[in-house]
Amino acid sequence: MRNFYHYLFVALLGGFGYCLIEIIWRGRTHYSMFFAGAIVLSSFVYIEQNYTLPFWTKCLTGMIIITATEFVFGVMFNLVLKEHVWDYSNIPLNIMGQICLPFSLLWLALSGIAFKVIEKTEPFLSKIY
């Protein structure tokens, strides 16, 4: 049960954090981004707790997780449900307008920041529960 509350807290933090980043970056967000953020941060914490990886590998893995999550959510909410949450069609090196290389590189940097924060806070947070 302890793990459940820990991951619930992490998921809520990830969801709100992802939405906050979107609001700061582009002035709006969509409810689906809450769930994307929850998935991403929970995945990062799981990786930090269960694998010993070099920092660059964590960053690359984080970039792949965020880009894959963005692609799945983009196909679901933009292409299937026609929600028009975002469109990268005008950005070079995009795939179906849902993901693109420039933002994936941004996710690489953001992953590095996230893993450093998790590395510093995880020992403290795991003692709370």
- The counted number of beta strands is 2
Q: Averaged pLDDT, please?
A: 93
Poorly predicted segments? none
Biggest sheet character: 2 strands, antiparallel
> Count of helices?
4
| Large-scale geometry | globular
Helix content: over 70%
Rounded Rg? 15 Å
- Fraction of residues in β-strands: under 5%
Structural class: mainly alpha
Compressed to H and E, one letter per element, the order equals HHHEEH
The neighbouring-strand order within the major sheet is 1-2
What does the model show?
This protein has 129 residues and is mainly alpha-helical. 77% of the residues lie in helices and 3% in strands. It contains four helices and two strands; from the N terminus they run H-H-H-E-E-H. The protein has helices at 2-26, 31-50, 55-80, 101-128; strands at residues 94-95, 99-100. Strands 1-2 form a two-stranded antiparallel ribbon. The protein is globular. The N and C termini lie close together (9 Å).
